[in-house]
Amino acid sequence: MESKDSHVIEHMEELRSRIIKTLIGFVAFFILSFIFVQDIYELLIKDLEGKLAVLGPSEILWVYMIIAAVCAIAATIPLAAFQVWRFVAPALKPEERKVTFRFIPGLFILFIIGISFGYFVLFPIVLGFLTSLSAGQFEMMFTAEKYFRFMINLILPFGILFEMPLVVMFLTRLGILNPTRLKKSRKISYFALVIVSILITPPDLISDILVIVPLLVLYEVSVQLSNIVYRKRLLREQAAFPVT
């Protein structure tokens, strides 16, 4: 019993160490991003006509901090994935360690693709649609806080959700998920993705559809990738333990 308790304590201490290292990395990336935050800000508003308004000095600081935080999150993803991999690596076989290690760069790439899709594809469409509603009726004026809050609320979830296929492949490789389970939970997953889409988009049908369709496609891609990984896993197990 004491040996078991000691083993659990060691795991908890290691987990705490991994979390602390990840947080330290996030803080370091945040500071680095904040140094160049004005350049990033100029890049984000280069296609915007006119300048954004601010209602006070604190709003400027909030905008700069939220931009730096998003950049830090993106940069921290490979580090966080590496710490998770190091935590579970002792329980994996040598071959599984090599295969799962290759997932780490993919997480960062898919996050960038996700926020790029949100920023370059979805954000202009939704913003243009909402702006067109005020044509001839209202004088539109953007504040920096409202503009960036709207932008980040729209694009950041895509950075996270676009990692779904790789996460599903990783969990399938570890034997936690399988394509059969994913297919059985398709209705519940669809419902959850629709709810997420409604929550992260403005209250209009066009925006909801623009978000729902890519998420459902991502889920189906995840199912197919899980099926491929699962079949390879079965073939490896059959090769290792042939039926006599």
Automatic annotation (TrEMBL):
Query: Which controlled-vocabulary keywords does the entry list?
Result: Cell membrane, Membrane, Protein transport, Translocation, Transmembrane, Transmembrane helix, Transport
In terms of superkingdom, the source organism counts as: Bacteria
Record membrane topology:
Multi-pass membrane protein
Instruction: Show the stretches that span the lipid bilayer.
Output: 20-41, 61-82, 103-130, 150-176, 188-203
Tell where it localizes: Cell membrane; Membrane
Gene Ontology cellular-component terms listed: TAT protein transport complex
Q: What is its main location?
A: membrane
Q: Name one Pfam family in it.
A: TatC
Please name the GO terms of the biological process aspect recorded for this protein, alphabetically: intracellular protein transmembrane transport; protein transport by the Tat complex
Q: Name one GO molecular function term.
A: proton motive force dependent protein transmembrane transporter activity
Q: Which family does it belong to?
A: Belongs to the TatC family.
Q: What does this protein do?
A: Part of the twin-arginine translocation (Tat) system that transports large folded proteins containing a characteristic twin-arginine motif in their signal peptide across membranes.
Q: How does it assemble?
A: Forms a complex with TatA.
The protein, known as: Sec-independent protein translocase protein TatC
Lineage runs: Bacteria, Bacillati, Bacillota, Bacilli, Bacillales
